[in-house]
Write a structure and sequence with these properties.
- The strands form four sheets. The chain has a seven-stranded mixed sheet, with helices on both faces. It has a two-stranded antiparallel ribbon with strand order 6-7. A two-stranded antiparallel ribbon has the order 10-11.
- It has helices at residues 7-12, 15-28, 35-48, 59-72, 90-97, 144-152, 205-214, 236-246, 249-266, 295-304, 332-340, 352-364, and strands spanning 52-56, 81-85, 102-106, 128-134, 156-160, 168-169, 172-173, 180-184, 198-202, 219-221, 224-225, 288-291, 341-344.
- The chain is built from twelve helices and 13 strands.
- It is globular, with a radius of gyration of 20 Å.
- By secondary structure, the chain is an alpha/beta fold.
- The longest helix is centred in the C-terminal third of the chain and has 18 residues, at 249-266.
- The structure holds pyridoxal-5'-phosphate.
- Pyridoxal-5'-phosphate binds next to helix 4 and helix 5.
Length: 365
């Protein structure tokens, strides 16, 4: 069976180091807000080539905290609008609605699966305060026009970088393009912890400070509370694991890019639409997502042939029970994407036999 993602194998590569640092954390007697987290934040700042990094508990919290910090700093308030792609993972939008902000869903581009930047301006109202771009599946969503548009309307650009750590747009890291970015280190992400964790990055020192305080009960001095904060800190154990794995991220990204290129060059089928890679380095292939109007049939066929695939995502977020007030929304491109996409196995630990098996099965479909 070609697994969609063999996490056991991913972490087995580093198991000696992971066990070593786990023992160090256990023996240190210090489990939160210590040296491992400091080291991880510094390492992420170096990796991002600038800005401030604040380690938090998970990717959803990273996005919640950015918006909450902008609210505390007076840049936006309850009822304001945030523009966001309609086909994203629901966490992007939960970060918005949790703060009682209004998500304004915009259709993606069918070729890139990313927010269609041409559709944004018509959605801007006097209440719009931010554009949340999602670098979906690992491909950067950015343009110079987007920056001008945000400047013209005084909007913040927030990047949901949960899937794209390591990508570059014209030499700049994703997560360092906009005003602030949220990262996820969920185990299956390109930089995965061995549990939940996330981070916020921003060039804005004031915002970074507000996020840090908010993530620690709204307090920067013990028992003195400036904001009604939450408890959203990365623990020392996860930071220690990430300090090990961050060293190998570039290598793993290169491997993902090699596999994606192999798929693109060798999958030949007029029934399938392969993903658009963009410029070199623009895509870090968190997911390799193809489209076909025979999606369910293809998934069954691959399963029968020993290849595990997933659908990202089967149901649009605005058709979920929790957002039942959005029932009337109709977004045909988003709906088409949810009906046609299929994610093939891609991970740095796949071997050539597995990769060829996927290609051969697809070419025979
Ligand atoms: C994974 C993910 C998140 C949430 O991250 P968690 O760490 O799981 O909370 C947010 N947005 C996108 C696009 C994601 O893929």
């Amino acid at each position: 069976m070609v697994k969609f993602l063999d996490l056991q194998k991913v972490n087995a590569q580093y198991s000696v180091d992971l066990k070593q640092v786990a023992a160090e954390v256990i023996d240190s007697g210090w489990y939160l807000q210590g040296e491992q987290v400091k080291q991880f934040e510094a390492g992420l700042e170096v990796f991002q080539e600038g800005g401030h990094a604040v380690a938090v508990a998970n990717g959803l919290d990273a996005l919640r905290l950015i918006l909450r910090a902008y609210m505390e700093l007076g840049f936006m308030q309850e009822g304001d609008e945030v523009i966001v792609p309609a086909n994203t993972y629901i966490a992007t939008v939960l970060g918005i609605t949790d703060n009682k902000l209004i998500p304004v869903l915009v259709e993606p581009d069918l070729n890139t699966f990313n927010l269609d930047l041409n559709l944004i301006e018509s959605k801007i109202t006097s209440k719009t305060k931010a554009i949340m771009v999602v670098h979906l599946y690992g491909r950067v969503c950015w343009s110079n026009e987007l920056v001008s548009l945000a400047k013209k309307h005084n909007l913040k650009i927030i990047e949901d970088n949960a899937q794209a750590i390591g990508a570059l747009w014209n030499g700049t890291r994703s997560g360092n393009l906009g005003d602030a970015a949220g990262f996820s280190f969920y185990p299956g992400k390109n930089l995965g912890a061995l549990g939940d964790s996330g981070a916020v990055t921003t060039k804005d020192a004031e915002l970074a400070k507000a996020v840090r305080i908010l993530a620690n009960y709204g307090s920067s001095k013990k028992y003195v509370n400036q904001y009604q904060g939450l408890n959203s800190r990365m623990d020392e154990m996860q930071a220690a694991f990430l300090n090990v794995k961050l060293r190998y991220l570039e290598n793993e990204t290169l491997r993902r890019q090699e596999i994606a290129n192999y798929y693109i060059e060798n999958i030949k089928s007029d029934k399938l639409v392969l993903p658009n890679a963009g410029d070199l380095h623009e895509h870090v292939w968190h997911l390799f997502v193809i489209r076909t109007n025979k999606r369910d049939e293809l998934q069954d066929y691959l399963q029968e042939n020993g290849i595990q695939t997933l659908i990202h995502y089967p149901i649009p977020l605005y058709k979920q029970e929790c957002y039942s007030y959005m029932v009337d929304i109709s977004l045909p491109i988003t709906e088409q994407i949810h009906q046609e996409v299929l994610s093939l196995p891609i991970s740095p630990v796949m071997n050539i036999d597995e990769i060829e098996k996927v290609v051969m099965a697809l070419n025979k479909f």
